[in-house]
Amino acid sequence: MKSKLMHLLQASCLLLLTFVSNLAVAEVIHVAAASNFTAPMKQIVKEFEQISGHKVRLAFGASGKFFAQIQHGAPFQVLLSADQAKPLALEQAGYTVAQSRFTYAIGALALWSVKPNFKVEDASVLSQGAFNKLALANPKLAPYGLAAVEVLEKLSLKETTRSKWVQGENIAQTYQFTGTGNADLGFVSLSQILVNGQIKQGSAWIIPDNFHRPIRQDAVLLKRGENSEAAQALIRFIKSEQAKKIIKAYGYQTPAQERQTEIKS
Amino acid sequence: MTFSEADMDAIYLTLRLATTVTLLLLLIGTPIAWWLARTKSWWKGPVGAIVALPLVLPPTVLGFYLLLAMGPNGVIGQFTQSLGLGTLPFTFWGLVIGSIFYSMPFVVQPIQNAIEAIGERPLEAAATLRAGPWDTFFTVVLPLAKPGFITAAILGFAHTVGEFGVVLMIGGNIPGETRVVSVQIYDHVEALEYAQAHALAVGMVVFSFIVLLGLYGFQRKQASLGMKYGG
């Protein structure tokens, strides 16, 4: 009886040891990412997992929700926000690893329609006003929504179009409103409508970046990732040329140098 | 904790939506509940299951399919366009339709239970007295099933007030038209305006608690009078 118990103990010790040593080699990390960055992030993580052997569990959603969750113990090691404000606020509240904040992508905005009778090439479709609804992300919550409002201001069309606005809670919902054809036009993230550098459905006006302030998206290493080799490796990978190529392929720009950029308000 | 003008708009809109939906659901839900309570048809199972679907489905699923169905290429959308009404998403009436689906089981099931609890006897008695079907309904069924109708109205109203996922999907967050309280709370949280979020959210908790407390008190009173519905 006794020897059986000893065997069992030995076996479980061995099992535990292999488990622990596996963990030391390949970690599982949790990463929260803004929903506009879904497509490129999936590809980045796929390549990262192949190279590093680590596993990345991705959560996509609204940055404000992640902000609240991180403050209340959500197990994320890395946050890729849709803006600069939330990583900065987390940094100031002491939830991040010092000096880890950086801009990983600069977003581009597109005015998009899936309808064949809407040939979107420039702002004329907006100024003519012959559309039922104009979808945009809530400017209070989403930087893409704020940028859309800036575009409308620049075109002096904010007041004339306002009665036709429908606001998504984030850019993913705005895409849904436009993609289902419920809104004739929508301001979406260019990354959402690009496949291999081509607009996959409908037509779009890629808005020149002088029409709005740059949509800088910052990432940050969270306190929970401080001692994680995998989290640090992922951040190094996001800054690498290999990842930048993916990010650019989805219509984003990448910052010229790694300097942290100030938030303009 | 004070409410901003936008918060007040959202509260007013939510109450208007819940009132409209409750009244319409009592009209639509009663015949369905009546049929479900009385029928011996094979269809009772499938229809009962469809009515109960929102109990188990995530509201976002319901909202997403409604967005597709009410869109320009969807079944409902084609129908409303042919009537010259345009499409329904992003309108008050779009929310009304969404909420009717969403709150349906909360109205149909209490009424169905109440009618089932009446049993055959009173209806047979009414028939021997030569009461027509409408007469029977208004003078026999309605008074006997009244607690069920009241429960249905309260639950339908409260559940519509608490609706979130469906409105998020088909609402479009238009002030005064589709931005209800639950969405306004979500907006506050997302914008890190936790004080305003708390003000509205606490209001919501208190409202729900009072509604349920009142409902259970009412049901206990009915039970003690020997008028308990639904076994």
Structure class of chain A: alpha/beta
Output the helix-strand order of chain A: HEHEHEHEEHEHHEHEHEEEEHH
Largest interface (CB within 8 Å) is between:
A-B, 24 and 23 residues
- What is the count of helical runs of chain A? 11
> How would you classify the helix and strand content of chain B by structural class?
mainly alpha
Roughly what is the average pLDDT of chain A, rounded to an integer?
Answer: 88
Helix share bin of chain A: 40-55%
What is the distance, rounded to the nearest whole angstrom, between the alpha carbons of the first and last residues of chain B? 44 Å
Largest sheet of chain B, if any?
none
Sheet with the most strands: spatial strand order of chain A: 2-1-3-12-4
The coarse overall form of chain B would be globular
Number of helices of chain B: 11
Low-confidence stretches of chain B: none
Overall pLDDT confidence of chain B = 91
The assembly state of the depicted protein chains is: heterodimer
- DSSP, total strands of chain B: 0
What is the 3D form of chain A?
Answer: elongated
What is the count of β-strands of chain A?
12
Main location (chain B): membrane
Transmembrane segments (chain B): 12-37, 49-70, 90-108, 194-218
Subcellular location (chain B): Cell inner membrane; Cell membrane
Domain ABC transmembrane type-1 (chain B): 11-217
